[in-house]
């Protein structure tokens, strides 16, 4: 399976304007609208609820409220949570290793997913993409790489698309591949 043309176009646009996207002025809301929503649409998800499903059955919930916070995205099938995505703006480095703190993105994502009993979840700023095994209880002393089972950068999406879509596409989840 090759990358969809939408993904290749996103990669090319990100590369062309990378300095602007890495600027602290470029915010997370812009990133989600311009890059992450189209990314997950390419994986088959109804990000904008174009099917008009009732709230209880929407495939994608933005800012899903859970006891300990609100993950940026919650992906669901039939109302059941399958995985979270925590988004950060590209100015935030996601893959640098070091001790975690309560406010670090990896700890935040793992805590959300672990408390919701989700096996896998994604941390991304589009420039960097990481999958975490969230069955491992997060601890503040963990390194950012703890429980990370996959990571790549945006230029590597084409070669890793079969892996990413094989786990996180709506079709893969419906088939039980997740």
Beta-strand fraction estimate: 15-25%
Total domains, how many? Answer: 1
CATH topology: tt1808, chain A
Spatial separation of the terminal alpha carbons = 17 Å
Helicity level: 25-40%
CATH class: Alpha Beta
General shape: globular
Strand order of the largest sheet: 1-2-3-4-5-6
Q: How many individual helices?
A: 6
CATH architectural arrangement? Alpha-Beta Complex
Q: Mean pLDDT, as a whole number? A: 91
GO molecular function: endonuclease activity
Protein name: Restriction endonuclease subunit M
Keywords: Endonuclease, Hydrolase, Nuclease
Organism: Abyssobacteria bacterium (strain SURF_5)
Main features:
single chain, 178 residues, alpha+beta, six-stranded mixed β-sheet, hydrolase, endonuclease, Restriction endonuclease subunit M
Notes on the structure:
The protein is α+β, with helices and mostly antiparallel strands and 178 residues long. It is built from six helices and six strands, in the order H-H-H-E-E-E-H-E-E-E-H-H. It is globular.
